[in-house]
Amino acid sequence: MTLLLTAPATEPGTPEARGEVSRAVRDRLLGGSPARLPRSGEIARCSPYGEDLHLALHLCYELHYRGFAGGPDTLEWDPGLLRVRALMEHRFESALRHDCRHRADLDEALSALLVESDDESGVSHFLMSRGELWHLREYAALRSVHQLREADPHLWVVPRLRGRAKAAMVAVEYDEYGAGRAERMHSRLYADLMADLGLDPSYGSCTDAAGAELLAVANLMSLFGLHRRLRGALVGHLAVVETTSPPAASRIVAAMRRTGAGPAAERYFEEHVEADAVHEQLVRREVVGGLLEDEPALAPEVAFGIAATCLLEDRLGSHVVNAWTRDESALRTPLPPLSGNER
Questions:
Q1: Where are the alpha helices (DSSP H) in 197-337?
Q2: Neighbours of 260 (CB within 10 A)
Q3: Is the dihedral of CA 32, 208, 48, 305 positive or negative?
Q4: 163 with 295: CB under 8 angstroms?
Q5: Residues 91, 48: contact at Cβ < 8 Å?
Q6: What is the pTM of this model?
Q7: How far is CA 11 from CA 7, 71, 172, 282, 311, in A?
């Protein structure tokens, strides 16, 4: 098996459409007329958590990251695409705010993140107790949609913070980007993990296989990151990621070792057991604390970010575990099996 492969720096291909809205957006990215972009009524008929809307939103957001092969860079600020993106964002955010309307206040929400639930039905518990190699491969493929750009959405909040919050945020992100060492960047470690599992580590390689549950998780980060008004929500999102990562990562390390996934596959999650335990303290005390010291009125938005992140992560986890419990793939298209020379 080949180890330590990295994703090439080329732009990904454009994912296949999943409905009329995503088809119209995709066609525009491939050179189609702006007159054929979807109207507000078409977007209003989309499920706010559905395949069509979230693939279309992913396509719009990706223009702010790597873009797509063959698509002109000028489309990043195309007025028609921005109009469509705003309509889809409103549909998505409105649903989130409705579904999170009974959320806890910020102190309760932060305290809850520190408590490991007695419910052992989540993905990391499944992988630790009975996960097989094919489960780990599917999990890695799903998460690759955002893990190959791991910290990028969080960086958008840096110019919107001040003082303590900004300094701590940059300290956390410095670790995410390998503390100045390209080979230690977490996105690079994730590409190495994928290679250990016999997966294509190319950026965007697994997007077509990922369902709306995962795309919504990834889109949430971009939604929060791209809007200054949602800076509090993005800090809340970061608090969830850094607080809940170490215990889940330790369980996945155990699963990787038990199944013989490979040293690079283990290394990524080992890094998160250690690093995120430190990050959790920085985020809670300095990023959240510093933000609210400067802007106390943002406390409800931080709580909203926590609630929305947990909501979508729970939806994704339920989808994955339910599929695996039925001995079915959690992907839209199952992965090809490993060839003999890859194990």
A1: 212-226, 231-259, 263-282, 289-294, 299-325
A2: 10
A3: negative
A4: no
A5: yes
A6: 0.93
A7: 10, 9, 27, 34, 31
Side-chain half-sphere CA neighbours of 24 within 13 A: 17
Tokens of 290: 């510093």
CA–CA separation, 30 and 71 (whole Å): 6
Alpha-carbon span 250 to 255, nearest angstrom = 9
Residue with the two structure tokens 């609210």: 292
User: Tokens in use for 41?
Assistant: 């009524």
Nearest Cα neighbor of 21 from 73, 56, 59, 47 is 56
Instruction: Measure Cα distances from 133 to 52, 126, 140, 256, 319 in Å.
Output: 30, 12, 11, 8, 19
Decide if 126 contacts 321 (C-beta within 8 A).
Answer: yes
| Token reading at 228 | 């200054």
**117 contacts: CB under 8 Å, gap ≥ 6:** none
Per-residue pLDDT of the chain (343 residues; tens, 9 = 90+): 333 334 344 788 999 999 999 999 999 999 999 999 999 999 999 999 999 999 999 999 999 999 999 889 999 999 999 999 999 999 999 999 999 999 999 999 999 998 877 677 899 999 999 999 999 999 999 999 999 998 999 999 999 999 999 999 999 999 999 999 999 999 999 999 999 999 999 999 999 999 999 999 999 999 999 999 999 999 999 999 999 988 999 999 999 999 999 999 899 999 888 776 778 889 999 999 999 999 999 999 999 999 999 999 999 999 999 999 999 999 999 999 886 555 5
The per-residue b/e assignment along 148-163, b for 16 or more CB within 10 angstroms, e otherwise, is bbbbbbbebbeebbee
> Is 257 exposed, middle or buried, given 0-12, 13-18 or 19+ CB atoms closer than 10 A?
middle
